Structure formats: C-alpha cells, structure tokens
Amino acid sequence: MQTSNASRRLSSLSAPAFGFALAGWLMGSVACTPYEVDADLDSRSGIDKTREGAQEISLNATIVDNVDLRRFDKTDWKYFTVPSAGVIDIVVSFDNPRALGEMVVTDEVGQIVSTFQDEKKRLLDRVSFKAESGLYYLQFWANAEGSDYSVQVNFSAL
Ligand SMILES: [Ca+2]
After folding, report:
1. Terminus-to-terminus CA distance in the chain, angstroms?
2. For position 137, which CATH number holds?
3. How far is CA 99 from CA 16, 141, 152, in A?
C-alpha cells in the first residue's frame, strides 16, 4: 500500500510517460500492484476497468465474462447489493488455469473482504463471508494469457 501510494503520487506529479518509466525503474527493487504498471494492458478494458465503472450483477445468478491480457482487457469490476445482514457465498471459476486468475472482494469503503486466487490444480472454488447490507465490489483479473470466468454470488439472509 505504501509503495502503490508513493508511485501513484509520483505518476500524478510527472508527465505520464516519465511517471510510467519511473514506475518501471522502481519495480526493480520494490513490488508494485499490477494495476499501475500494467495500465496499457487495460487499454481496451472498457468502463469496467475501474471501480467507478463496475457493472452490476444480480444475486443468485451465474455471470460469464472474460479478461484477457492479449486483448488489453486485463481487469473487470462488478458490484452487487446485499439487501440485509446475511451470508455471501461466491462461486468463481476461471476456465484457463494458465491465466492465474484472481478476484478480490471489497466493501463499500474499499476494505478487502475476501480474496480468491486460482490455482492450476483447481478450476472451481468459492469464498464465503458474513455481510451487512450494502454494496460489495468484485475485481477480476488475469495475470497471464486470458480466460473466461464465471461467477455466482449467493445470498442467504440471517
Ligand atoms: Ca474489462
């Protein structure tokens, strides 16, 4: 977090090209979040490459979508609304294990609620957590190649 804030600040203070080069240079010694250094990989991502452009999904319904670095669509953001206190159970599946797909769940104020990292040996998994009413965000991305993914957010009221 410290690192990403610092490089964001550097980027905003300098010309974009210089900031990008500097971020690349900094990467030699420190870890960066994938989003800033791979900005080009989201150049055709569409509006859902950021949280502000997250697409709404319904509860208890399967959604299929795709992220693909080769098509410059590395990232998708989605959101759903939890109507009341309950348990959320998210079933997620990346079709291509070589994509090393990941998903992060955040709440309305951006706190990470849960994370999911696809492993080569496993094509289907789920994360569960207790949730209060409100908006929750899902960020999906591929770390290599690309993959279709499916996700279903199940809700049970307490
Ligand atoms: Ca996208």
Report:
1. 34
2. 2.60.120.380
3. 28, 9, 20
Look up the pTM and report it.
Answer: 0.74
Q: What percent of the chain has pLDDT over 90?
A: 65
Say if residue 71 is in the same domain as residue 55: yes
The 10s digit of each residue's pLDDT in 38-64 is: 678 998 999 999 999 999 999 999 999
| Same domain for 51 and 27 | no
Instruction: Using the mean position of ligand 1's atoms as its centre, give its distance from the Cα of residue 150 in Å.
Output: 14
DSSP annotation of 50 reads S
Domain extent, residue 9, equals 2-37
Residue 128 has pLDDT above 90, yes or no: yes
Residues 6+ apart with CB under 8 A from 35: 42, 75
Cα-to-centroid distance, 94 and ligand 1 (Å) = 15
Total domains, the chain: 2
- pLDDT surpassing 60 at residue 6: no
Q: 């009341």: which residue's tokens? A: 84
CA of 10 to the centre of ligand 1 (A): 25
